[in-house]
Design a protein that fits this description.
Elements lengths: L4 H14 L8 E6 L2 E8 L2 H12 L6 E8 L9 H14 L8 E6 L2 E8 L2 H12 L6 E4 L2 E2 L5 H13 L9 E6 L2 E8 L2 H12 L6 E4 L2 E2 L2
Parallel strand pairs: 2-3, 5-6, 5-7, 9-10, 9-11
Antiparallel strand pairs: 1-2, 4-5, 8-9
Helix pairs in contact: 5-6
Length: about 220
């Protein structure tokens, strides 16, 4: 009975795992109508040849498309699972990121973050940290912010931020919340006061969008 592609893939994987001269961790296997495509990385050219020979030994393999690349120890580690591991390590080291709440998926260098966090800044920090890892070509941030903001909470944070500064008055700033969106209005005396209000709004729990309509009153 002719093997299915799934059976051939399983047997090739088992053969690579069994072959002592091959580190199969970074080798990908795809099978289509008996044609086996080997991809990924090995540490030396002889290992690349050994992987190809091992695949050829498997019954049911009609042909081999060999796309394995040799990557030396000094080369950047850009396999998907290595990228994911580095992102998780960086999350664990960053006190601003609740790493136990975030799932990381990497496919061809593209990172997808999912899960739920309590604060917008945690979502934003996770996105920025993931994007800095070498080998990452893009980040899809699907993290959800759990809490919804209240107008009073946002207003209190703006007032507290203004009070920490000299000669600033938050009394003329208006705050309206719509779900996770905060709309700022009113008047302030200078651009930097508007920036303080906006940053304070972003710092409130659950905020995912800030619409700043504050006017500068010269």
């Amino acid at each position: 009975m002719k093997k299915t592609d799934a059976q051939v893939q399983h047997d090739v994987m088992a053969e690579l795992e069994w072959e002592p001269s091959v580190d199969h961790a970074d080798i990908g296997i795809a099978v289509n109508d008996g044609v086996v495509t080997l991809s990924g990385y090995v540490k030396a050219y002889p290992e690349k040849m050994a992987a190809e020979r091992a695949a050829r030994r498997v019954a049911g393999v009609q042909a081999i498309a060999e796309e394995i690349k040799v990557r030396f120890a000094s080369d950047p580690k850009t396999a998907d699972h290595e990228i994911a591991k580095r992102i998780l390590d960086m999350f664990a080291w960053n006190v601003s990121i609740p790493d136990d709440c975030i799932e990381v998926k990497v496919e061809h260098g593209w990172v997808t973050l999912s899960g739920t966090v309590d604060w917008f800044y945690q979502s934003n920090e996770a996105r920025k940290v993931a994007g800095k890892v070498s080998g990452v070509v893009g980040v899809s941030n699907l993290l959800e912010v759990r809490k919804l903001p209240t107008s009073r909470d946002v207003k209190d944070r703006i007032m507290a931020a203004f009070k920490r500064q000299a000669d600033l008055d938050s009394g003329s700033v208006t705050v309206v919340t719509d779900g996770s969106t905060v709309r700022l209005g009113g008047r302030v005396k200078a651009w930097h006061e508007r920036g303080i209000a906006e940053r304070a709004a972003w710092a409130a729990p659950g905020v995912t969008k800030v619409v700043d309509n504050i006017v500068i009153a010269y």
